[in-house]
């Protein structure tokens, strides 16, 4: 209370401390796995940048909105508007915390990994890059309420900073930027602070052009697409389907289409501009996991405002069955996500021949040879970079693995992928609902599970490398998975009992879950047979572990309605 600066710093720490712990844990665990598994220092650096290079999401959540939209832009600390603290002090202190915290946690994690594994990780040059990234992204998020500025600025920041990273001299463990690059990073940091102070000053004084809430072109496009089909009134189920498409499904399809259109453009531009090849490669590689992470969550439409998480009043009060509502929400989001993934995959597959502009005619004949490798591949890497080799290796591997399957095996693979997407969306929706209702208990259980899985992975790698007593480690690796499965069965039984007791599920609902599990089990066995794995060839103790993924759909089919009922009726 003695200093406004100290109070602002304390408030930022209180807001970000949980996210700090999760990012530190993810960086330490991911970096350790990469260094132990022989992936190299570069992989560990990428893991750390993914955790400590982005601004704090817990701060961005204060403005409300959805993760799929990047949350609402604008300065999140609205209470500072009424306090006798200068705008420069308030904004500068918060931005200094954003930049300094990322640098401190990166340096701490990198130093810990370096000391633990005896491999040096780059420090100061990456720290400068993190400062520029955090300040720029914070500027884009805070300086205005405009969605257009948020999207365009974020894209420009990603393009600019990835280009600088690709121009750097990656002689690991050193990453050296040129003096010009350091000057550009410094200019970007200073410009970000100045623009943010000016933008927040206008917001603080109630500039109507900035403070009026607009739907934005993306929201208007979503409304226009959804309005092509009027809301059906013939049945509640059809109306619910229309509502789910209107509230989030159309947005997923639109973003998938935009990503699919960006891929061929990136490949075409990367031909004459060599510095953009890594950006095109990153777009293709990160499109699928990025869409699963950003577009596959929050199927229940939970909302945020000033740190609070709450469900829609419409969802919690309408007279509609909880189980049916939850499954409709999950199915609509899953189908839209699958459509987006198919569009991106088709675009990437059709755009791959555009990489011909990256190499000469002789090198192209070598790259498109499905059996290239050895000195020839190394020559291509030295001449053009590793991106084209990785892309075409994945292309050939996919063709040989999938196109050589029989018809029923391909159908089983498609069914399995669709059910996997449904299970993923359902699980993330259930976790979001449980986080809203039982935040501390859910975070504690998730932290225990993640730390346990990471310790098992590290123990497995150390056994393969001959580190530590093999007998004790083998016993632990054998017993712990069985304990985890037993706990999962007990927890699933409790959720099933609770769902029946609260009348969330009926016998008909359980029959539908069982049918889906049988279909997924049959598809899983067919795919395993196509991969050359049969249950007869496995030891009896490994059969249960092999078929355990099949139970995921059944578990989510029971957990998701119960989790939605927790936020609707309690």
Written account of the structure:
By secondary structure, the chain is mostly helical. It contains 22 helices and four strands. Strands 1-2 form a two-stranded antiparallel sheet. Strands 3-4 form a two-stranded antiparallel sheet. Strand 1 and strand 2 form a beta hairpin. The longest helix is centred in the middle third of the chain and has 35 residues. The protein is globular, with a radius of gyration of 25 Å.
List keywords for this structure.
single chain, 570 residues, mainly alpha, two-stranded antiparallel ribbon, 4 strands, 2% strand
Can you summarize this structure?
With 570 residues, the chain is an all-alpha fold.
Give the proportion of residues in helices. Answer: over 70%
Strand content: under 5%
Structural class: mainly alpha
What is the β-strand count? 4
Gap between N and C termini? 38 Å
C-alpha geometry: globular
Order of strands across the widest beta sheet? 1-2
What is the arithmetic mean of pLDDT?
78
- One letter per element, helices H and strands E, the order comes to HHHHHHEEHHHHHEEHHHHHHHHHHH
The gyration radius over C-alpha positions equals 25 Å
User: So how many helices?
Assistant: 22
The description of the largest β-sheet is: 2 strands, antiparallel
Low-confidence runs (pLDDT<50, min 5 residues)? 208-215
């Amino acid at each position: 209370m003695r200093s406004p600066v100290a109070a602002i710093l304390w408030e930022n720490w209180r807001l970000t401390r949980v996210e700090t712990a999760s990012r530190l844990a993810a960086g330490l665990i991911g970096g350790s796995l990469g260094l132990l598994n022989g992936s190299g220092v570069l992989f560990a650096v990428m893991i750390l940048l993914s955790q400590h290079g982005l601004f704090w999401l817990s701060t961005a959540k204060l403005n409300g909105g959805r993760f799929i939209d990047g949350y609402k832009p604008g300065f999140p600390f609205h209470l500072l508007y009424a306090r006798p603290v200068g705008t420069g002090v308030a904004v500068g202190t918060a931005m200094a915390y954003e930049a300094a915290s990322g640098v401190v946690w990166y340096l701490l994690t990198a130093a810990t990994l370096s000391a633990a594994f005896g491999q040096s990780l780059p420090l100061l040059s990456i720290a400068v890059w993190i400062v520029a990234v955090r300040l720029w992204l914070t500027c884009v998020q805070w300086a205005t309420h405009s969605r257009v500025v948020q999207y365009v600025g974020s894209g420009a920041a990603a393009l600019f900073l990835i280009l600088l990273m690709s121009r750097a001299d990656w002689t690991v463990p050193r990453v050296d930027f040129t003096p010009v690059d350091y000057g550009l990073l410094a200019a970007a940091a200073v410009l970000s602070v100045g623009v943010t102070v000016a933008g927040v000053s206008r917001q603080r004084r109630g500039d109507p052009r900035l403070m009026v809430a607009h739907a934005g072109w993306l929201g208007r496009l979503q409304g226009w697409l959804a309005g092509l089909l009027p809301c059906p009134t013939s049945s509640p189920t059809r109306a619910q389907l229309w509502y789910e498409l209107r509230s989030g499904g159309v947005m997923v399809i639109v973003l998938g289409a935009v990503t699919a259109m960006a891929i061929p453009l990136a490949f075409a531009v990367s031909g004459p501009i060599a510095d953009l090849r890594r950006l095109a490669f990153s777009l293709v590689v990160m499109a699928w996991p990025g869409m699963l992470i950003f577009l596959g969550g929050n199927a229940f439409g939970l909302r945020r405002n000033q740190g609070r998480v709450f469900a829609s009043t419409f969802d919690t009060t309408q007279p509609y069955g909880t189980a049916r509502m939850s499954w409709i929400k999950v199915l609509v989001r899953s189908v839209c996500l699958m459509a987006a993934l198919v569009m991106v995959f088709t675009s990437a597959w059709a755009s791959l021949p555009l990489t011909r502009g990256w190499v000469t005619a002789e090198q192209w004949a070598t790259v498109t040879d499905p059996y290239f490798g050895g000195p020839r591949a190394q020559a291509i890497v030295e001449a053009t970079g590793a991106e084209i080799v990785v892309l075409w290796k994945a292309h050939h591997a996919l063709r040989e693995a999938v196109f050589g399957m029989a018809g029923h095996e391909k159908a089983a693979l498609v069914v399995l992928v669709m059910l996997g997407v449904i299970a993923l969306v359902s699980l993330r929706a259930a976790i979001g609902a449980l986080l809203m209702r039982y935040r501390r208990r859910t975070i504690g259980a998730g932290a225990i599970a993640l730390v346990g899985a990471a310790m098992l992975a590290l123990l497995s790698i150390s056994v393969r490398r001959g580190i530590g007593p093999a007998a004790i480690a083998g016993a632990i690796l054998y017993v712990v998975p069985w304990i985890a499965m037993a706990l999962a069965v007990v927890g699933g039984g409790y959720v099933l009992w609770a769902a029946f007791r609260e009348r969330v599920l009926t016998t008909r609902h359980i029959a539908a879950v069982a049918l889906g599990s049988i279909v997924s089990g049959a598809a899983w066995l067919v795919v395993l047979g196509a991969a050359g794995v049969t249950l007869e060839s496995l030891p009896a103790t490994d059969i249960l572990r092999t078929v355990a993924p099949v139970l995921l759909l059944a578990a989510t089919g029971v957990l998701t309605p119960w989790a939605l009922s927790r936020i609707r009726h309690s």
